[in-house]
Amino acid sequence: MSPQDIAQQAPPAAQAAAGGCHGGRETMLEAAKAAGKSEVLAKLASDYPKGPHDQPQSMCPAFGSLRVGLRMRRTATVLSGSACCVYGLTFTSHFYGARRTVGYVPFDSETLVTGQLFEDIRKAVFELAKPDLYDAVVIINLCVPTASGVPLDLLPKQIEGVRIIGIDVPGFGVPTHAEAKDVLAGAMLRYARQEAEQGPVQRPRQAADDRPSVALIGELFPADPVGIGALLAPMGLTVAPQLPSREWRDLYAALDCKVTAAVHPFYTAAVREFRSAGRPVVGSGPVGVEGTAAWLQAIGAAAGVDATAIDAAKAKATAAAAAALAASPIQARITVSGYEGSELLVARLLIEAGAEVPYVGTACPRTEWSEPDRQWLEAHGAHVQYRASLEQDVAAMREVKPDLALGTTPLVQAAKEQGTPAIYFTNMVSARPLFGPAGAAALAGIVRTQTAGRERFGQMVAFFAGVGQGQATGYGMSGAPAKQPAAKAAPAKPEAPKRLVEQSIVEDPPAERPAPVPLSAKPNGAAKAVHRVHVAPAVAAAGVRGG
Fold it and tell me: For tag attachment on the chain, is the N or C end more exposed, with fewer CB atoms within 10 Å?
């Protein structure tokens, strides 16, 4: 039976899923529900509610989960999805500095609808689960396997001590790649919490500190946890390994914290696990003078620190922050937008530095842990837009006419087309310190450098006016091209007389070709056997390596 025949005889849900991503979001969603994924989809919808539009325009959400897995030591990360999706995710991961292998379990319509894909995944997991190499193996279902109901929950929970983590991260169920980080981080934290409840667990790689710790939730710039640790020290607190973690054993140390700080406010699943472990959760972060004072107050109170120690820590930290802001003032109108989850904190710091920030857009949802920042921003004249679309961000930028626009790549392009300086939030802002005095100095440097080029942008726009627009775009021409004057016809060349040699070749009758000699009649007396190679479908996790 051919793969096409098998697909036609499969259930309607499997047929829809086998059609691939091109079926559309609603088709994939209905197929996933019919295939038994209703509970998974309901949980994703509860943890990551969508906005007025279907989904923010960001990169494939699965990139977030893949990134979390690839940043961990002794963790194998394997994708199950369409080859084109796997290629794009692998490319993006290595573009952003991944140095680890991305595993891939391929499939076709036959293995998908017959259930063979699950068996292939299971075989790959058993081949990868080597305790001398890995602490965990992560399998990520992309859109098509999720819609077809590939049951990763039926995989063994552990193989020879290696944890097996299977998650569904469909583009039609997880709104942004930022929230997809939480899907995997939360699943890992849940597994680690259950292990810790059963008995002793592995110590963290770094020497344990006797002081109570604060676990930071969010993918932060490497210098930020160190700076936050200095702010906490006067209260007798230290920083625990942050989440997402860099190694499995760090999850135990994070759970052993005194207080959890949801610096990035969209980690709903991770917060749920910390609360299940009995840990209080505090939102916002130490930005600027007011933000630092409020955050230290909340952290100290949650940790049960004496009021005198809290005041001492606030006095030391706010003095340093005030000095940094005074040394690096910002006099500019700025719009902020992005999909990292730290947009509100960046806007707070800009305003405290003296900037005017009338609009803040984030692709992430509104949660209780971003409420302090939202209230503060709105009290200072900023409009905060959760689940912001590209169209909303661009409209705000064009209406406000800022001196600098921070945002996503398409917003930066739209801003530069009208002569407004703009920078990509992820690569320029998130790649620098944000908290404490270091954050104030770094952000001011970015603004100062970029706003100085406004006149240059204006000159470039004037110089290239009309290029790539209207009829000059080369695409979407509404009218017929102007008729060009006819080119002067070239004189015809006289036909050369045929040579006698050519005539003789044509007139000669074709020579008879000798009959082929059969193989059996060859001198060796035996025909050569044809070597046929049967290539079995790959079922193991084939490595796709990046540089």
Answer: C
